[in-house]
Amino acid sequence: MASERMLQFVGREQSYPDKRSANERARDFREIAERYAAPDADEQAARCSQCGVPYCSVHCPLHNHIPDWLRLTAEGRLREAYELSNATSTMPEICGRICPQDRLCEGNCVIEFSGHGAVTIGSVEKYITDTAWAEGWVEPLHPGRPTGQSVGVIGAGPAGLTAAEYLRAQGHEVHVYDRHDRAGGLLTYGIPGFKLEKEVVMRRIDRLVEGGIHFHLGFAVGEDATLDALRQKHDAILIATGVYKAREINVPGNAAEGVIAALDYLIASNRKSFGDAVPAFDDGRLDAKGKHVVVIGGGDTAMDCVRTAVRQGAKSVKCLYRRDRENMPGSQREVANAEEEGVEFVWLSAPESFTADKHVKQVAVAGMRLGAPDASGRRSPEADPGRKFDVPADMVIKALGFDPEELPHLFGSPDLSVTRWGTLRVDHQTMMTSLPGVFAAGDIVRGASLVVWGIRDGRDVSEQMAKWLKAKAKSEKKAA
After folding, report:
1. How far apart are alpha carbons 191 and 88 in whole angstroms?
2. Residue limits of the Dihydroprymidine dehydrogenase domain (predicted)?
3. For every residue of the chain, which 3-state class applies, written as one string?
4. How far, rounded to the nearest angstrom, does the alpha carbon of residue 47 sit from its chain's CA centroid?
5. From CA 461, how far away is CA 406, in angstroms rounded?
């Protein structure tokens, strides 16, 4: 019986796909884990307890039907599992690779709480859709009946691409504008290949192009056209630019050569993986080879930087973070992967200054300790006067997170309202900005967040835009 295949979490141990050895994977930018073989994926899916209240789904921003597609996988009904997985997510195989499952679905798995180890949800999700691509089950994007209405999407990241897909399926003409020469946003240029191989992203974008979505790449809103000009061209606009302005470290020596922003570093590395000419990499400025590298920060971007530096052949790689391991924002799995690959973490430490003649050569570090909780409930770091030391550095990478750019100024649209944090102000029911017919979604509204939240916001905003466009068409028809 099919039901006998389930509830195997007691007699069957948790098992993730095998990772390549640290020595092997540190030499290339391929993904570090191989795909499940079919029997392994089936067996791991069968560990799901099919609990009455699926906390995995509750804690997934997309509310994916996780127990249902795990059951279908365990029963060998993989095509149905794919169709169900694809029903709630535009990029399931991407989420399976880069979501912090340890903080979301797997971290809230009931059998994890029972001590048997969570179901390996992310790896199964990746397996299901990778198999669908290989077997030809991934359907083309079928545009709906033409509405005669046009939508402009600014930003080709997860939120923008998701909204574009849903709006195109509803029959709207969709134009996507992005300042980079490839679509995908941080999926393409911010996340290294060892977490997300670029072919996985490109095949998604190719599908959207084949579905009739128009991409305008190398297009900077504010330079190539103002926001008002795009509003005149389209019936509705979605702003989904993400947040790209790097947070700074205000310490002496911050402007020295060799002190660089994380995104500049990661974009250069990813461009090299595409075979692009990157002068700042080729002349050594953004290449860690042979250097003592210090990365400052404790989020997932910092983890991407330290692991990229290892692969570029750095002499040493250290990560300075002002809190301890338990209080860092990045994925614990990523920390473990980095440590296996030779990265040294210096917990409870913060830079006091960067010593340089012209080029950085040393970081003066102040020890930290955790004091009283801050407004978010996390214990605030404070200086520990008894700990000061120096760390040699030929390259310092600042990975302290991102803030919004000044979009009203950048887009030539001073009446575009922002919050005190610089994010776009929206009506949270309609997701519309202060400008009629201009919507916003993703990190530019919520601040720097996860890819899965960008997909969720793209899905939600497409529904609101569709309602507004329908009402607009009805009003125009009535007026005529």
Report:
1. 23
2. 25-136
3. CHHHHCCCCCCCCCCCCCECCHHHHCCCCCCCECCCCHHHHHHHHCCCCCCCCCHHHHCCCCCCCHHHHHHHHHCCCHHHHHHHHHHHCCCHHHHHHHCCCCCCCHHHCHHHHCCCCCCCHHHHHHHHHHHHHHHCCCCCCCCCCCCCCEEEEECCCHHHHHHHHHHHHCCCEEEEEECCCCCCCHHHHCCCCCCCCHHHHHHHHHHHHHCCCEEEECCCECCCECHHHHHHHCCEEEECCCCCEECCCCCCCCCCECEEEHHHHHHHHHHHHCCCCCHHHHCCCCCCCCCEEEEECCCHHHHHHHHHHHHCCCCEEEEECCCCHHHCCCCHHHHHHHHHCCCEEECCEEEEEEEECCEEEEEEEEEEEEEEECCCCCEEEEEEEEEEEEEECCEEEECCCEECCCHHHHCCCCCCCECCCCCECCCCCCCECCCCCEEECCHHHHCCCCHHHHHHHHHHHHHHHHHHHHHHHHHHHHHC
4. 28
5. 22
Residue pair 269/406 in contact (Cβ under 8 Å)? The answer is no
Q: Which residues of 372-390 are buried (b: 16+ CB within 10 A; e: fewer)?
A: eeeeeeeeebeeeeeeeee
**Amino acid at residue number 301:** T
pLDDT 10s digits, 208-227:
999 999 999 999 999 999 99
Q: How far apart are CA 383 and CA 348, in angstroms?
A: 9
Q: Taking the CA of residue 100 as centre, how many other CA atoms within 13 Å lie in the half-sphere pointing to its CB?
A: 17
Instruction: List the structure tokens of 249.
Output: 């470290």
Taking 70 as the threshold, does the pLDDT of residue 462 lie above it? Answer: yes
Confidence at residue 2, expressed as pLDDT on a 0 to 100 scale: 47
In whole angstroms, give the CA distance from residue 365 to residue 348: 10
Structural domains in the chain, CATH included, are 2-135 (1.10.1060.10), 150-243+404-479 (3.50.50.60), 246-402 (3.50.50.60)
In contact, 253 and 354? CB cutoff 8 Å: yes
Place of tokens 């529904």: 463
Taking only the tens place, the pLDDT of each residue in 247-298 is: 999 999 999 999 999 999 999 999 999 999 999 999 999 999 999 999 999 9
Do residues 157 and 454 make contact, with C-beta atoms less than 8 angstroms apart?
A: yes
